Amino acid sequence: MDIINITSDNWNEIISSPLSIVTFTKDDCQNCKKWIEKIISSNAIRNITFAVINLSQKGLGKIKIENPWISQIDILPFNVLFADGELHENWSGGNEDRLMQIIKPYQ
Predict the structure, then answer these.
(1) CB 88 within 8 A of CB 81
(2) Helix (H, G, I), strand (E, B), or coil: what is residue 99?
(3) Strand 49-54 relative to strand 86-92: parallel, antiparallel, unpaired?
(4) 18-77 pLDDT, tens per residue?
(5) Which of 49, 38, 37 lies closest to 6, judged by CA?
(6) Does residue 92 have a pLDDT over 80?
(7) H helices within 1-107, ranges in order?
(8) Is 102 helix (H, G, I), strand (E, B) or coil?
(9) Of 75, 67, 87, the residue nearest 22 (C-alpha)
């Protein structure tokens, strides 16, 4: 599975897809790296756009201003499920069983 890196240029495109999961990470988050590796190796997840936004990355000011809830993220990795541009679910941590439980009603 491919995971897209989010920038200010593709943010709206990613969250506007029919079903997308955006994982928020930082450079120094080891649990984030493990979670991304687990998502990449999973064969159970289909028809979902997966993307990562690294909060350590520069140039994300516009996204953060337009989405003030991002500044309240305190536990990483932090995952958000979007359906057609609407935020539907969010949760902290990297647990594949929980991910499957959350996306099941949307598939």
Answers:
(1) yes
(2) helix
(3) unpaired
(4) 999 999 999 999 999 999 999 888 876 778 999 999 999 999 999 999 999 999 999 999
(5) 49
(6) yes
(7) 11-15, 30-41, 61-66, 96-103
(8) helix
(9) 87
CA angle 105, 102, 89 (to 5 degrees): 100
Q: Which two tokens stand for residue 24?
A: 């928020």
Output the pTM of the full model.
0.93
Q: Which residues of 4-14 are buried (b: 16+ CB within 10 A; e: fewer)?
A: bebeeeebeeb
Structure tokens at 80: 């958000």
Strands (E), 1-107: 4-5, 20-25, 49-54, 78-83, 86-92
Could you give the C-alpha distances from 94 to 12, 30, 62, in angstroms and in order? 24, 11, 27
Q: Which two tokens stand for residue 25?
A: 């990470």
